[in-house]
Amino acid sequence: MKPAWQLLRDDAPSPIREAQLAVNRRQFFGKSATGLGIAALSGLLGRESGAAPHHPARAKRVIYLFQNGGPTHVDLFDYKPELTRLHGQPVPKEYLGGKRFSTMTGDPSGKLMLQPVEPFHQHGSSGAWVSELMPHLGAVADDLCFVKSLHTDAVNHAPAISFMLSGAQLPGRPALGAWLNYGLGSPNEDLPGYVVMTSVSKGTTCGQIFYDFYWGSGFLPSRFQGSKFRGSRDPVLYLSNPEGISAPLRRGMLDDLAELNQAKFATSGDPEILTRIAQYELAYRMQSSVPELTDLSSEPEHVLEMYGPQVREPGTFAYNCLMARRLVERGVPFVQCMHAGWDQHNSLTTELYTQCRDTDQPSAALIKDLKMRGLLDETLVIWGGEFGRTPFIQGNLENRPRWGRDHHPYAFTVWMAGGGVKPGISYGASDDLGFNAVDRPVHVHDFQATILHLLGIDHERLTYRFQGRYFRLTDVHGHVVRDLLA
To answer: In whole angstroms, how far apart are CA 474 and each of 163, 448, 478?
Structure first.
């Protein structure tokens, strides 16, 4: 009996052949157009080439240190002495203005103001205010660009994270890394162009979930979605050949499988078949590249010590930060390190300390490591979450071990470093209570437009047609914040 791939090439009758002959004129042109379009897209935006940027890029790669849960800006980076003066007093009504909070707060009237849990100090020649909870980041403050006037539209975690990463609160839109993978491609053929790693602090009670749509490709072909690396020394499942399968045998199997998939694509024009072919080939090359990536034996001891004691433990934030540096060093253009546990509704005086201890030193080490290797200038590092936390308390003021803060979308802080942003500045400001963004407010879409601009992309021109309209990361909004550019 002839194999299926040969039947496709013969004139002998077969169900597949009959289906090919039965294609009508409308289907033929529809499928041909799709096939030609995807072929052109593959040639233009494939991993081997990448599309030309719209303007000279300041950054070639991104490491996004995303802090799930909403880090408390008023306890970490946004110093407000007025909070200490008003500690224990009701929220001034003029700051509320009908604002919407989570159902855990409900009506904020009568809530009591809460001072920072630890003192702030100024650091470096820039004089940046940083909490004692973040001493290592304070030491590199002159390399950081703080944006203190960010604000968002969403008040709950999953919609806000989706909005921050994809420009829409509902799942189904491509994540930032997928847009860049689609728009620019990757210079590395042996590793994914978009890698995601997740971590959670030990002992946390935070129930944060890492949904796959946080790094999904949405309506883009799925080959542009993020590839999640597991928190173990074997980060990608099923890369190793089963017992008895040699490398030449595996190569032959993939070649035959590619022929079958190409034949199917010729009849259907389904772009996901191209994804399947590309992913099989990438997995084959990763059999060599991933073990080399995760082998830390070549890392100098002083570098490992710089990242802190957890760096040797796969699945920790410290380990993921080091992996991020190793990935961008090998040409991977977008790495997303997501760390959960910042949802301190009743754990500011307990779990906040753990979160800072687990992330402060590795984040600062990543900046220093990239700078030491000459990579920081062309690597944009971003640190931040989906929103901030309320300047007022959630809980009983008399019970300090259970102090907490609720979600706060109206003003929060992120920082960036390298990649063409101005170092040693604080841009914008919230009001004297950290309640509202009042000086040069930056909306999430403005922030996204600025990130794309730093990578050489005009956010209004990077589009994809889906269901009859052209979509983009920033929807129909967003302006580049040019004062952030070096």
So the answer is: 10, 7, 6
Residues 184 and 50 sit within 8 Å (Cβ to Cβ) = yes
Which DSSP helix (H) or strand (E) runs through 379?
A: strand 379-384
For residue 151, pLDDT beyond 50: yes
What is the CATH topology of the domain spanning 56-235+299-484?
Answer: Alkaline Phosphatase, subunit A (3.40.720)
> pLDDT, tens digit, for every residue of 350-401?
999 999 999 999 999 999 999 999 999 999 999 999 999 999 999 999 999 9
Domain positions in the chain are 56-235+299-484
From residue 415, alpha-carbon distances to 191, 316, 397 in Å are 28, 21, 30
Other C-beta atoms closer than 10 Å to the C-beta of 328 total 25
| Per-residue buried b or exposed e for 291-312, using 16+ beta carbons within 10 Å of the residue's own CB | eebbebeebeeebbebbbebbe
Please answer whether residues 334 and 195 qualify as being in contact, where contact means their C-beta atoms are separated by less than 8 angstroms: yes
Asked if residue 293 lies in contact with residue 331, where contact means CB atoms within 8 angstroms, the answer is no
Largest distance between two CA atoms of the chain:
87
What letter does residue 302 receive in the DSSP assignment?
H
H-helix or E-strand spanning residue 446: helix 444-454
Residue 97 CA to residue 352 CA, distance in Å, equals 29
* Residue showing tokens 């794309």: 452
Angle at 222 between CA 218 and CA 223, to 5 degrees: 140
Distances (CA, A) of 361 to 119, 301, 426: 18, 16, 21
Question: Distance (Å, rounded) from C-alpha 331 to C-alpha 187?
Answer: 6
Report strand pairing: 194-200 vs 227-229.
parallel
Rounded CA separation 107/96 (Å):
10
Is 170 in a helix, a strand, or coil?
coil
Residue 338 β-bridge partners: 66, 198
